[in-house]
Known about the structure:
By secondary structure, the protein is an alpha/beta fold. The chain has two domains: 121 residues, NAD(P)-binding Rossmann-like Domain (Rossmann fold), CATH 3.40.50; 86 residues, Alpha-Beta Plaits (2-Layer Sandwich). The chain has a six-stranded parallel beta sheet with strand order 3-2-1-4-5-6, with helices on both faces. The radius of gyration is 20 Å and the shape is elongated. About 3% of the residues have low confidence.
Amino acid sequence: MSMYIIVVGGGNVGVQLTKRLIARGHEVLMLEKDSRQAQKLGNLLGEKHIMHGDGCDILTQKEAGFKRADIVVSVTGEDEDNLICCQLAKEVWSVNRVVARVNDPAHEAVFREIGIDDTVSATGIIFSLIDQQIASDELIPVGHLHKGHVEIVESVLSDRSRLVGKAVRDITLPQGSFIVYLFRDGNGMQVNGDTEFRTDDMVVAMVPSARAEELRTVFTDVNA
């Protein structure tokens, strides 16, 4: 189903996201407040997908069509701008779903308090990529859903993990937790009860935030 999606912020994150959304057939408009950057992006992505303007300005939001947007994503390099943009999208324009980039993980609690549906911490994702190189079996948070009540986590299994050799149906997860995806040899694959874990698998799971520590025990409990 095609949606109208507004992306605020014409940096690399916004550009790559916009490209993918356009490729999926969605109606996408990017807002970029720097006029020169907006012009460059118009040449790169097509003028119909770019609008020069401040995504935190109500008049700009009105012109961009926030009122009919299905999703607003704010991915500028400034947390304050992302916060204001998303708050206005929800409170003024009643956008059904808003997503904000959080550059400083310390600000995530503030975003949740005002009702931002989803936040993505660039720092958290980078940390997880680095940490995977120095510590296997550790459970790394990479995102939040439902106003922070649900965490998306991932873990790369070492050959010492108790999960290796077991099927999904053979492990006990905390209530409300799910194994949702698995990356093996660089390829993603769906998971069912018969899926058997192997060394070096990257396992992606969803867990209620209140039960994250319980899930951490399942993933980090390793063979001596």
